[in-house]
């Protein structure tokens, strides 16, 4: 394109007004291209700034998610620990219940034996009274 302009300029070299017009036209086109370039740079800068803001918000959200995830993990560990303590406590309660059952059974057996002994002693006491009378 420039070659055609230079060619026309060379042909019209004998007329300085034509050359001046062409130089003005080229300067106007260059100024317009510069304006368009500046506008593209401004638009790109705005888009980059918007992208930076979005990335910053995403980073904040990611940090919040990470923090909440750590809190959930801590709660899971606490639940696990509490569950283990509860399981041990239930085991101790079960063992205590079994011991109580054993004691109750032993007491029942002892009670039956005591009752039988009492009856035996009562019978012997009756026999003894009869012999004494």
UniProtKB/TrEMBL annotation:
Keyword Cytoplasm carried by entry: no
Gene3D superfamilies: Methyl-accepting chemotaxis protein
InterPro entries the UniProt entry points to: Chemotax_Me-accpt_rcpt, MCP_chemotaxis, MCPsignal_dom
PROSITE patterns in the record: CHEMOTAXIS_TRANSDUC_2
Swiss-Prot/TrEMBL keywords: Chemotaxis, Transducer
Stretches assigned to the Methyl-accepting transducer domain: 1-122
Superkingdom of the source species: Bacteria
Family the UniProt entry places it in: Belongs to the methyl-accepting chemotaxis (MCP) protein family.
Name this protein carries in UniProt: Methyl-accepting transducer domain-containing protein
Species of provenance: Lacrimispora defluvii
